[in-house]
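QA checklist item 7 of 12: single-chain prediction sanity check.
[x] sequence parsed
[x] length recorded as 144
[x] structure emitted
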Amino acid sequence: MPALTAFLSGLVFGLGLLLSGMADPAKVLGFLDLAGTWDPSLAFVMGGAIAVAAPAFALARRRSHGLLGAAMQLPKATHIDRRLVLGSLVFGAGWGLAGFCPGPALVSAAAGYREAWLFVAAMVAGMALFSLLEGGWRRQPRPV
């Protein structure tokens, strides 16, 4: 059941990215181009996502288990450190240069966009390099 739930959640998320235009790098770059022909429509998409997510996270904080019975696993870290800031800067620079971030890139790759496949390949290579630099290919425990 968890695999089916994950699949359906990912499917809904991917469809939302397609419908909102977040999987279109031209639309994303238009949003990020404040000095040119700025397209504010993605601000409404982000605002809508925050409006839906904020009450859901507030409810989740009060629960010990999810709707399907799994234990809640919310992030515990609350401090801002150098690694977070540098990672955010690299993420933002990549988003601004390519017009993709990981989720929309996967959706665009699945839709057949060649540029998205290049981005996904670079993203996987970066993840592999990070893993190697951080101490090898450690297998992460699966959530219960």
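[x] summary fact logged: The mean pLDDT is 86.
[ ] second reviewer sign-off
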